Amino acid sequence: MPRDKQVRGTAFQQMPGWYIEFQMAVLRALPRDIPQEVADKLRKDGQGLSENLRGILISEKLVIPGRFFMRVTLGMYSNNADLQQAIMSSGKMIDDYVKQALRKIKISSKKISKRIDVDLWEVSGAELGFVKSAPFSEICKQAHKLGFDLCPAEAIALARMQCNDIKCRVGGMNPISDSNVLRLLTLDGHGAVPWFSSRYGNPDDVWHPSQVWLFARPRRKQ
Predict the structure, then answer these.
(1) What is the pLDDT of residue 196?
(2) Is the dihedral of CA 159, 162, 165, 166 positive or negative?
(3) What does the DSSP 8-state code read for residue 31?
(4) Residue 219 to residue 96: CA distance in whole angstroms
(5) CA–CA separation, 81 vs 60, rounded Å?
(6) HEC states along 129-186?
(7) Confidence (pLDDT) at 53
(8) CA torsion sign, 110 to 114 to 115 to 121?
(9) CA gyration radius for the chain?
(10) In whole angstroms, what is the distance from residue 88 CA to residue 102 CA?
(11) 95-144: per-residue pLDDT in tens?
(12) Are 181 and 150 in contact (CB under 8 A)?
């Protein structure tokens, strides 16, 4: 066996298991739509590729709190009534407050030529850095500092339709006014039945660090 292949083989065998698993995860995550000319340029410039990867991977900004929840596509329904019917048809229960709220929320037009994808992340108050209960306004401010955006109400509704579990997740969103009361759309459940409900959403309402939130995460420009 040529010496260079022996060296590479030995180096691979000496890598810790976690690093090999990380390599495989990176390979699986590589986008499949990279133009060939871009791939060829990066392949030929090994040092440049290494420096670019190091700049991306070894960075404090890489540590994103929480975890990816799901991707939803806005503009799939013609009107609010169709959206509500789709949620109910998926087997979810909707409380009366949310039924009223669903009549008010702005939904993207089905006529738009390009659908809008929104990546939703779930993150607890503790993961945002809170060690004690904090007002909703402060939670949103901290989430924004960490790179999150408020969720469109339509995105929360679509998430309820697609998600079948009963874990409580509160929408990090602009509250909806209901008879002078501000409310936040919420994914939760009663017994084993998934519900689409709401919570009070006044800016000074305090929330325990264990509460899990749904925020939008801006997608990288292609």
Answers:
(1) 97
(2) positive
(3) -
(4) 33
(5) 44
(6) CCCCCEEHHHHHHHHHHCCCECECHHHHHHHHHHCCCCCCEEECECCEEECCEEEEEE
(7) 78
(8) negative
(9) 22
(10) 12
(11) 999 999 998 888 886 655 567 899 999 999 999 999 999 999 999 999 99
(12) no
